[in-house]
Amino acid sequence: MQLLKEKVLEEGIVLSEQVLKVDAFLNHQVDPSLMSAIGKEFVSRFSGETITKVLTIESSGIAPALMTAAHLNVPLIYARKQKSLTLKEDIYVKKVYSFTKQVASDLTVAKKFITPDDRVLIIDDFLAHGEAALGLAHIIRQADAELAGIGIVIEKAFQNGGKRLKDAGFRVESLVRIASLENQRVQFAEDYIEREKINYATSV
Ligand code: G4P
Known about the structure:
The strands form 3 sheets. Strands 4-3-7-8-9-10 form a 6-stranded mixed β-sheet, with helices on both faces. Strands 1-2 form a two-stranded antiparallel ribbon. A two-stranded antiparallel ribbon has the order 5-6. The protein is α/β, with parallel strands linked by helices. The chain has one domain (2-203): Rossmann fold (3-Layer(aba) Sandwich). Helix 2 packs across helix 3. It is globular, with a radius of gyration of 17 Å. It is built from 6 helices and 10 strands. Guanosine-5',3'-tetraphosphate binds next to strand 2, strand 7 and helix 4.
């Protein structure tokens, strides 16, 4: 997604070889027109799928997931990471561990919001090691609902989340894929492949 790539290059800050800061448009301040474009893009990528609900995790997944749900005209559910005062009824719970933040949390969703006749689209802001998406997929399975696919705003393709999700048989659509954050610059996966091709072509 070209618009998102430009935003990442203009406003993203490479904090380390593992972490990209995007708090100017996604993780703290949110760009609504970009989120709307992101929602439309997910709808177009999953246009062949029946989707009855969108599922994400608080907090940074909510903005892109909400816009996707709005364009699909279906409800958005966000899994809680902390126990809510009011979430006392029957709940699905799945423990996930964040390698990036080095904390474990209990993803929690009220049973009444996902039922066996649902086809659920997972949306999240970042894909790193795949723990969050696998945790949400587990909750969908607990509910006997179907997973329609997984939409990711920014995939860090140098980490193993994409492979884990594809190996598990899930359809994953990432709007941008980052191949590397080395040397304090963002290298997108497609450009990386293009460059490798050019290097190969000029070397033979
Ligand atoms: P995983 O689910 O793919 O395994 O990812 P991981 O546990 O490693 O990371 C989970 C949390 O860290 C998520 O936030 C995710 O958005 C964030 N994260 C991972 N990599 C990056 C990165 O390069 N840059 C930024 N800005 N965030 C990253 P969270 O715990 O759900 O918190 P929240 O910010 O959504 O509240």
